[in-house]
Amino acid sequence: MDHHHEHRAPEPTPFGLGEWSVPALLILLLTAYLVAVLSLRERGTRWPMTRTLAWLGGLLLVGAGLVGPLAERAHHDFVAHMAGHVLLGMLGPLFLVLAAPATLALRVLPVGAARRLSRLLTSPPATFLTNPFIAALLNIGGLWVLYRTGLYTATHTDPLLHAAVHIHVPAAGYLFTFAILGGPDPAPHRLSAPWRAWALVASIAAHNVLAKVLYATPPEGVPAEQARAGAELMYYGGAPVEIALIFLVCRPWLLPSREHAPPRRSLP
Amino acid sequence: MDASSPAVQQPRHGRNVTAGILFGLGTIAFVDEVVFHQILHWHHFYDRSTTAVGLVSDGLFHAFSWFATVAALLMVAALHRERTLQGLTFTAGWLTGAGFFQLYDGLVQHKLLGLHQIRYGVNLVPYDVTWNVIAGVLLLAGVVLWIITGRRARRSSRADSART
After folding, report:
1. Domain segments of chain A: what residues?
2. Closest Cβ–Cβ partner in A212, A228, A250 for B70
3. How high is the ipTM of this complex?
């Protein structure tokens, strides 16, 4: 048991808010979204219930990857770590992107603030980061750096690195998912669907290859058995999310809606 | 079919073939994963002899096969909706795609890149021969059917343009 304690991340996060900072942040994000939806409804505009549920589901999935029993086990169990990776970096961000938080913010914010947000979303740095190839590099490239350098092992002893990785993974996952889908939030500079599909296929391939490399040569300090089970979970657990992304990219492209309307329909 | 329907204006021969080829690739990858990896356990998740090039080729092959399956099904749905789905043409593409990728898997990935073998601890020759002969037959049947349906599509489009 002592051996496990060595690998546990120290309790306080570098922000000094303790282990409650993550649930507090998630509750804040949920509350802000709900307040926005309610204030929209007060003005007589309906917001789709599916989007609200997607936001709730996404926050729960990200939360499960960050705190609670799975996250606890992930400190010393590579299989649990990989389950966390799929929730935190892939499935959770997909739900959050589908909830269209920027669209909601643009509708409820006062005109001045909405204009500033809109300007921020279309600024050159945002355009650069939401290029699907750049976002893929940050997301999948980040995973390669995490597992193929000493970084993964270092996160077990350095709380700052641990926190940085656990912020980077969902952030890069969100950025990647949004860049690949090019919506439902406004994406004025998005590339055409075939380009986004190529970036997605290349990313899935890089994710597959990384899983097999981890299977063959585990990160330092991870037992071979755990590495193999974790790598297979990464490969097969990631697949449903990847197939969902492929479907969402391809549907408006290959099966456009009957009236040949643009894929993003405006809400009533 | 009346002359003003989109079906006559666009026979969509190429799109039917493309959907078929993509679905053929998806089918081969699916059979490989389900039958040879999961049911028979002849194939392994990772083989020590695998080279870096082999790993990248396998990663791309599987990533693209998922894309191909989804894209093919969506294309079939679109063709079906505009009533331009041609079963025989789609089958031509399907056989061509399946045969081509089976042959690619059997010759390039198994033999040239040494990604993994069909089965372990047995004499491989009968397995390799069976695998690649099946692939060759599928490919040949697909190409022949492709030529036949292509000729037929050209003839019917000529007839249509003569009529209008």
Report:
1. 20-254
2. A250
3. 0.81
